[in-house]
Design a protein that fits this description.
about 160 residues, mainly beta, Signal recognition particle alu RNA binding heterodimer, srp9/1, 2 domains, 4-stranded mixed sheet, 10 strands, globular, disordered C terminus
Length: about 160
């Protein structure tokens, strides 16, 4: 049920089906998402690429790249994910992870917060990518189909 400010009882089941990123080189950016992040290509053309992101299509189409998009991916096994992606050529940003005894700021690849862990990198167009591993007890509003095993437990009508 969608919270409807008009007060009527219309219900909708909304979910994101497609996210679009514009790029001056969709094929090159598609290579990053398929070869580095491991997303499966559903359609690949020079000016248009569609990748599967666990039921949501990531569409990369020709257009002016702004480098201002922010994508967040839920992962399980953050340490393994970061190691795997580094092995595929991903370069992670150094983030502040704490304070040392001498007062200097410690930096690292994986940050920790009250809701879980995260790591940051950029795609070949400069868009921000966050990998996030949420603690289900401290981040209770994850989608109902999300499980800590990383398996997709969504029910489909098919």
């Amino acid at each position: 049920m969608v919270d409807n400010p008009q007060g009527d009882s219309t219900s909708m089941n909304l979910c994101i089906a497609v996210m679009t990123i514009r790029s001056a080189s969709p094929s090159r950016l598609g290579d990053f998402y398929s070869h580095v992040l491991g997303l499966r290509a559903l359609r690949r053309e020079e000016m248009y690429v569609v990748l599967d992101c666990r039921g949501v299509s990531l569409e990369i189409s020709y257009g002016q790249a702004s480098g201002s998009q922010e994508l967040k991916f839920e992962v399980t096994g953050m340490d393994e994910a970061v190691t795997t992606l580094k092995g595929r050529g991903a370069v992670f940003e150094e983030i502040e992870i704490g304070m040392r005894a001498d007062g200097t700021i410690a930096k690292g690849t994986i940050g920790e917060t009250f809701w879980g862990r995260y790591a940051m990198l950029r795609d070949t167009d400069g868009n921000s990518i966050a990998l996030e591993e949420h603690d289900e007890q401290l981040f209770p509003f994850m989608p109902a189909w999300f499980t800590s095993s990383g398996e997709d437990d969504r029910q489909t009508d098919a």
